Amino acid sequence: MKPTLNFIKTIAAQAGDILLALVHSDLNIQHKNRIDLVTKADHDSEQFLINAIQTAFPDHAIVAEESGSWEGAQDHQWYIDPLDGTLNYAHGVPIYCVSIGYACQGRMELGVVYDPTRGEFFCAQRGQGATLNEQPIHVSGFSELIDSMLGTGFPKGEADPVDDNIANFIRFSQQAQCVRRLGSAALAIAYVAAGRLDGFWEVEIHQWDIAAGGLIVEEAGGVVTDIHGRPDYMTKPPSILCANPVIHSQMLDVINALHNEQ
Ligand code: IPD
Ligand code: CA
Ligand code: CA
User: Fold this and answer.
1) Ligand 1: which of 164, 169, 205 to mutate, judged by most atoms within 8 Å of the beta carbon?
2) Residue 155 C-alpha to ligand 2 middle, in angstroms?
3) Taking the mean position of all CA atoms in its chain, how far away is CA 193?
4) Ligand 1 within 6 A of 85 CB?
């Protein structure tokens, strides 16, 4: 059996309540590495979501950030980030979200990105368009990179990143209006869908960061690919480049030009 969008919204809202309830308490911060943190809120939110999904859909497979993969029917795959923007959360910066994506037979079908600090639900169901709090949303209409506000993010690994994003960051800072690093990839991608950001890219990212947001951008009329322009951005190792169709093509040109120079 498939979930409904309402089911996902309901559990995202409850997970968001967990995040809000814990934000001023002892976060019980643990280090995954020197700069990557995990808090009690990450664990509690994830445990809640996994219990809720397994209770309703016991045979579904789940990929979740903190606890890894839960085996299940391959036709029903969930991607969960119980708290996207942990560093912001741990520092009291109210830019974070819950991200939940559901794929049926390998195709993303449902996505919800919920920002509990603003009560904003970014949602999409394949073929039904994208919404923000029930209102239809669309990617922006800008046609020039120089008019575009872009977003990006950087990995939190200890080793040097395989593909250093700094060169892209510099180049886009020169060729776009500006580049923002919000600290929550899922939320920034949802902002592309809502036309708040005009494009977003990230080179090293995880499936749970992009599963829901990618579908929301597609349903909002945007183009979503990996960093090289390939359509299957969820294939490991995932990366993402998303924007309205015109800006997406211009961003890809910038990335390819830089790549050819290196
Ligand atoms: C991170 C955030 C960050 C992005 C990283 C992610 P987390 O997720 O989305 O903005 O740049 O790639 O890992 O660890 O806060 O869930
Ligand atoms: Ca994340
Ligand atoms: Ca997370």
Assistant:
1) 205
2) 10
3) 11
4) yes
Domain with residues 5-136, CATH architecture = 2-Layer Sandwich (3.30)
Query: What fold, for 145-261?
Result: D-Maltodextrin-Binding Protein; domain 2 (3.40.190)
Listed in order, the ranges of the chain carrying CATH 3.40.190.80 are 145-261
Mean pLDDT computed over every residue of the chain: 95
- Model confidence pLDDT, tens digit, residues 48-95: 999 999 999 999 999 999 998 888 888 999 999 999 999 999 999 999
As a whole number, mean pLDDT of residues 235-262 equals 95
Q: What is the pLDDT of residue 174?
A: 97
Split at pLDDT 50, 70, 90, the class of 158 is: low
Question: For position 156, what pLDDT does the model report?
Answer: 79
Is residue 162 over pLDDT 70?
A: no
Nearest atom in ligand 1 to 96's CA? 15
CB 159 within 8 A of CB 39: no
Distance from Cα 261 to the centre of ligand 2, integer Å: 31
Query: Is there an atom of ligand 1 within 6 Å of 84 CB?
Result: yes
Residue with tokens 């060169």: 167
Taking alpha carbons only, the member of 75, 77, 22 closest to residue 44 is 22
Burial 58-67 (b: 16+ CB within 10 A, else e): eebbbbbbbe
